[in-house]
Amino acid sequence: MIRLERVNKSFGRLRVLRDVSLEVQKGEVVCIIGPSGAGKSTLLRCINHLEGIDSGTIYIEGTPVYRFSREGRHVVDPDHRIEALRSQVGMVFQSFNLFPHFTALENVMVAPIHVRREPKDEVRRRALALMTKVGLAEKTDAYPHELSGGQQQRVAIARALAMQPKAMLFDEVTSALDPELIGEVLRVMRQLAAEGMTMLVVTHEMGFAQDVCDRVIFMADGTIVEEGAPRQIFSTPSNVRTRQFLQSILERNTEMGDTSGGLSAGPSR
């Protein structure tokens, strides 16, 4: 579904992604973990072309996209094709970015109507179903300021799903939420995973990564340091950087008095 081949990205002299290669299969849930500054969020933004890459190639369903080389010639996708590709790969951010002057339902409806020019009645039916799916059927007429952070984030997920994407990117979607609101967002993500949605998730929720993900990737310094099944990564990581990162999480939990036994880290952008 998604493939990166030796992707590099720098901001000035700061090299954020270093020859990153990655594959995400259809229906697979892949979690990316790692310390602050590892390049995790930038990786997702490059996949959605919110950031252009410096070199390498990104493939969506086996087709090179955005900017790539073909038979020795540099190719740049036109804007209309980039828009179409973005609609196939939905993205949800740490900040909710809802339109404050639109109701929750209108926020979910806006992209299919204005980007895809779909009939309003059809989009409304789909949006109502999505609001029910994320557990907010009773909040369709509420404005963002009338919703909790968890509710706003669930509207943001419904908004991304309204474009009927083939894959979803989640970038630290719970890190701005109060602890009691995190569970309601993770429940929606767990449901999407159970339904077979292809998902690439940057997260500090280690319990979610352990329970839901098919594969866990540990990034540091702009590279993929280690990847494997959750059991292997969390129980017997082979790389010393991975072990140090997970140990720091356990120590932090101990200091905070967390005796639940689950791993959890603070925001790790």
From TrEMBL:
<dbReference type="InterPro" id="IPR030679">
    <property type="entry name" value="ABC_ATPase_HisP-typ"/>
</dbReference>
<dbReference type="Pfam" id="PF00005">
    <property type="entry name" value="ABC_tran"/>
</dbReference>
<dbReference type="InterPro" id="IPR017871">
    <property type="entry name" value="ABC_transporter-like_CS"/>
</dbReference>
<dbReference type="GO" id="GO:0015424">
    <property type="term" value="F:ABC-type amino acid transporter activity"/>
</dbReference>
<dbReference type="InterPro" id="IPR050086">
    <property type="entry name" value="MetN_ABC_transporter-like"/>
</dbReference>
<keyword id="KW-0813">Transport</keyword>
<dbReference type="InterPro" id="IPR003439">
    <property type="entry name" value="ABC_transporter-like_ATP-bd"/>
</dbReference>
<dbReference type="InterPro" id="IPR003593">
    <property type="entry name" value="AAA+_ATPase"/>
</dbReference>
<keyword id="KW-0067">ATP-binding</keyword>
<dbReference type="InterPro" id="IPR027417">
    <property type="entry name" value="P-loop_NTPase"/>
</dbReference>
<dbReference type="GO" id="GO:0005524">
    <property type="term" value="F:ATP binding"/>
</dbReference>
<protein>
    <submittedName>
        <fullName>Amino acid ABC transporter ATP-binding protein</fullName>
    </submittedName>
</protein>
<dbReference type="GO" id="GO:0016887">
    <property type="term" value="F:ATP hydrolysis activity"/>
</dbReference>
<comment type="similarity">
    <text>Belongs to the ABC transporter superfamily.</text>
</comment>
<feature type="domain" description="ABC transporter">
    <location>
        <begin position="2"/>
        <end position="246"/>
    </location>
</feature>
<keyword id="KW-0547">Nucleotide-binding</keyword>
